[in-house]
Every structure is written in structure tokens, then in C-alpha cells.
Amino acid sequence: MTPGPDTILRVAVNVPLSRLFDYLPPAGTDGAGLLPGIRLTVPFGRRRQTAVLMECAGTSDLPASKLKRAIAVLNDKPLLRAADLWLLRFTSDYYLHPVGEVAAAALPALLRQGRPLYPATERVTLTAAGRDADPDALARRAPRQAEVLAALAARGGACDAAELDEAVPAWRRCRKALLHKDCLRIDEVTATPVAVPESTAEPGPAPNAAQREALAAMRATSGFDVTLLDGVTGSGKTEVYLHRMQDVLAQNGQVLILVPEIGLTPQFVRRLRRRLGREPLVLHSSLPDSDRLAAWRAARDGSAPLILGTRSAVFTPLAAPGLIVVDEEHDGSYKQQEGLRYSARDLAIARAKHLDIPVILGSATPAMETVLRCRQGAYRHLVLPERAGFAAPPLIRLVDLARHPANDGLSDPLLRSMDRHLDEGGQALIFLNRRGYAPTLICTACGKIAECERCDARMTVHAGSQSLACHHCGASRPLDTSCSDCGADCRPLGQGTERIEGVLAARYGGDAVTRIDSDSTRLKGTMDKALARAASGEARILVGTQMLSKGHHFPKLTLVGVINADQGLFSTDFRGGERLGQSLVQVAGRAGRERRQGEVVIQTAFASHPFWSRLLAGGYDEVAAFTLAEREAAAWPPFSRLALLRAEAPQRGPTHNFLDTARQLAGELGLDHVRVLGPVSAPMERRAGRYRAQLLVQSASRQALHNLLGRLVIKLENHPAARRVRWSLDVDPAELF
User: Fold this and answer.
1) Contacts of 557 (CB under 8 A, 6+ apart)
2) pLDDT for the residue 26
């Protein structure tokens, strides 16, 4: 340990190394006033990096001659509080991910780039000389200058430069001349906290008996508490959320609400605004960087009492945390699949425990991990068994495709049900979790299938753009009309949402059908418009993917048809049955949410499969009970812990060599209570031109698993074999491929 005359700054730098880096304070300071949570600019190799100060020390493991000085302090006061720094450390320790990359993921992009928390803006003000200028005379000599002065006058004599940019795009060309004439003044103004406006809250429906019992149970405890609000679709879980939010807001606390998809945020915002009289701030990856920083800043300074966001919002700093709500807690979207592979649901629970505040997990189809924790007594399990109001549960029936073959994906029983519901003024949703026109293009003579040149996958037919696209790497090429091998005609095989849309449009009219998937809603605003048509009933038939199964309320929807329900029956992933049950129950829950009872028609080629008898007889509860028993017998999660070590490279050899090295190193470290399986090639070995392989590490003990992996990661970071591959560690993986 090398003592130094200055404080040693231990900082997190956005690099893939599992350690903090030691620096001396900037020149001219001794570091006495520098507190953890501030940002600094530091030299790192040949670059400058924005770093977060995690802790201060009196000594360093490095010799004094090796210590560099930080270049500048970017914040006088901590940007991140102690609780925020704890969350960064916890995330890094649990997911065994470099703390610098965790800190970078938790900060808005502009703060990562070293920009100020409160950015300075230019304020343009009309002076007395500018007001007195003769507009007619000025317009003849300098029309653009006259336009600028008129625009300022129309805005009360002052506005931000960005606003003037929109009103008079070329105003900066005459800026110097107007300043010289003393017609305007430009000041630099630093943004300050702005209070979120309040409005009158509208009363909601009176809670029913089950909702009152749930609220009483939640209100009976204080401090940290995890509640699973397990309610059938349409049972009024959101009403319970709203009442608990009102409790917290009345005590001047903040509420963080997590939702799985960006598409769910607009309807949630409208409901929160109407019922709570507060404007929720929204945080998700599609926001412009400046808007994301403004929302993050308002949450941090406490001016925003309601924060609504997708998974990354779990890192948002809160000035007065009071409640965290995780809606649709089972949803796989809460697990980040690239870079820092974290679960927002699990981090929300860990964060709530550290902050000593309650967290509500809501779902009609809770994850197996959550169900087990309830059985063990770690979480409180509250059930809303019936739909709110006068809505009855939908009737569910199977269509055996062996007896009723489908034509263009639609069987006669399903079409007859559609005719009946549409004639009665209802609305139909056709669910197929496969976008595009068809999943395969095949030669009618030799059977050749159009495949991606960069992936071990088939190309999907997109009829609208007359193209073939790979949904794994994004590659595309023009649609083949003839086979490149034999010259015979090619034809699409199978159904996607685009094809089903065309079939239904031909039968019922194009104006009656609206398709909602990631292709049709790619442009800004199209998703909101499509959902508005669906909610109003203007779109009589909806065709969509998983995007339509989550949380949406369509008052006139009475029929749900599931086109291909068999995809999850024979999945290679041990979670296949659980996800199939969740998907079907969620999409079925869109039907009959008002006074008319809904109907769900599920097409299957395997009507005798035992999964169907469990689902139809006992619903999701029966599926969950069987799944947990099966997992326990096989020692799969949640009865064991998993981690997946992945590697990819342009050639196959380096991936297996690296993972063989990892397995050998793990054996040398000791495999007490830990099992290592592999390495094996990934189920889709080649993706985006890179070969992928994986090593599975399993243990009944989380502590044993982390003890091994923590030491293994350090060794792998410094091993020569790691330089030839791109590798990652996924703790609690949601996908095994």
C-alpha cells in the first residue's frame, strides 16, 4: 500500500474490467471536498473518460509514480446519493459485471458524455432599441432581422434560442448585426428544477371486496414488504396500484412504476394523470437524450412524484422514495439481454429492501420464481379472483386442426366464431406471435429454403416490401421469384401477421382490419393511432403479436383467436411451458372485459397434449403447480441457480477454446456444490456472422455459485484466450440460447 499526501479517488470507469481505478485529485486540490457520487474527467490510456467517484481512500495499491491526476471535477455536489451508489455496487456484485459499465448504464447518455446536470441555455431578449425599431423600414432593408424582432415580440419579448430556431431557422445569420444594433440581448441561463403541475383528480370506481382486502393487507405494514398482487386479467390490479400510490403521494413520497413495454406507457400516463391529478414523468430508451435527462433530473430532485418507465428506469435516483410497482412482473422484457444482463424486477426488490419501502409485483400469470417465494412465505400473496364490475371470465375452447384443417392459417370454427361476434357488434383479435408474411420461402421443385447467409436461420418473407429479412441479424435482400439452384418457382410457406391481415382483409374488407406488430408500428405515432382505433372499436379486427397481449383494454373486444399455439409445447427451453401458459392467459384476458362475455378459440395440432387439459381445467394455477413440481424434480430454477458463460467469434474454434479454458479454470478453483455443463455450441450457432458457444454453471446454492464465478471472472479477464472472443456472463439467464 502506497501512502500519498492527497486523498486517493477510487472511480468507476466505463471499461470492461471488474475493478475501480485509483487517481489523485485534480491539480491544485487535495480532494478534501470531493464526495462519492460526483463525476470527474480522468485520463484513461490515450483518451479522456467520464468517471463516477465511488469512494475515497488514504492509500493505493499502486506506487505513487503510477498514479495519475484526475483532469476536472464535473459536479461540486454528488450526482448520485449513497443509496444510488449502493445499487450500482449491488448490481455489479450480483451480476458480476464491471462496475464502470453498470454506472454508465444507470446514467443518461448526456451525463455519461460529461454534460452538466442542469445544461445552460441561451435566452434571447428584445431590448428597448429592438422594440422601438421601425418594422416597415427594417423589413425593406433587412427582412430577416425584422422577422426575428417580430418573432420575439410575438413571444412577449423573450424566448429560448431553441424556440427561436424553430420559429426563424436562419435567425443566427443576422444575430451579430442585431447585437451590434443593440436590438437584442443574449444571456446564458442555467436550467433549474421545475415543479410538475397538478390537476384535479377524478374519482375512480369504489373498490370491490377483494380489492379492499388487498389494500387493507398492504396498509397494515410499513417499511419493506414484497406483495404479489395475483389477479386474473381484468380484476382491477391497476385500481389497487392507484390507491396505494395515493397513500404515498399524500405523504409527499415518490412512486416508481415499471412496465415491460414502451407501448404500454401512453395509456398508463393518461390513467395516472386522470386519477391522481399528477403528470407522470416517462423514462424509456426511445426518448431523446435531452428529454431523458430532464426526466431523470426531475426524479432526482424530487419535483416529479410519479416516474413511469421500462426496465432501465429501475436505476432512476429518487429524492423521497415511497413505493415501487412492477406491473406484469413475469414479463421477459424486464431481463436485459445485452451488455449488463440484469433483471429490473429483481433489482426493484433489492432496491426496495435497501430503501425500506414496499414493492408491489402485479401479474395474472406470475413467474415461477415469484410463486415459489410466496409459498416459502418471503412474499405476501394477495389474490383478486374475479374480474371487476360485471365482466365474466372468457370461455376457452380448442380447435383440433387434425379435424378442422386451417386454410391460410384460419380454421372454419374460428371463422364462424368471428362472423358471429362481428355480426353482434363485437371486436375480434387474431393473435400470432410471428411477424412478416411467412416464416419460410421454399422452392416448389427441389425444396430449397431461403436461408440467411450470416445466421443459422431462415429468411422471413415480407410481402409489402417484396423482401426477405432475417429477424435475428437484420439482413435483408429482394424477394426471390425463382430458385437459384433449379430455376423453379418459389412460394411462401406458413403464416405471419402480414399474411393473416391480407386473408382477413379479403374476407371482411381492408378498413375493418388493423395489424399491430413491430413492423406496422415502426414510425413515430403509428402505435398510438393503431391502439386508438382498437380501443374505439373503429378497427373491428385486430391482428397482432405479443405486443397486443400485455395490459391493453379494448372495451368492444369479445373474441380472441390464437392461430399457432403449439410453438411452446415442444420448446428446447425448460421455461417453454411456463411462457406458453403466460402468453395464452394474457392474450385471452383481452376478451370480454366489459359486460359481454368473451370467447377464446385456440387452434392446435396437438389437442391431446396434457398441457391443454391442465390449462382448460385449472387455468394458470394448474400450469404453475405442475411446472414447479417438474422443476423441483429436475433441480431446475427456481430450485437451483444458473449462470451462462457465452462466447462468440468469427470462427468456431476460439469460442470452444475459451470455454474449455474457463471450465479448466473453474475446476482448478474448486467445484464444491457447483456443476459445470458444456461447452456446447449455442442452439443457433451462427448469428450475424459470428459463431456462438456457451457453458452452463449450476448450483443449488447462490453463494456457492457466486463464490466460484467471482474468482473465475477475474481470471478470465486477464487470460490470453479472452482476447480472441467476445464473452459475457449471464447470471439468472432468462434464455438458454
Assistant:
1) 426, 427, 428, 429, 534, 542, 590, 591, 592, 593, 598
2) 92
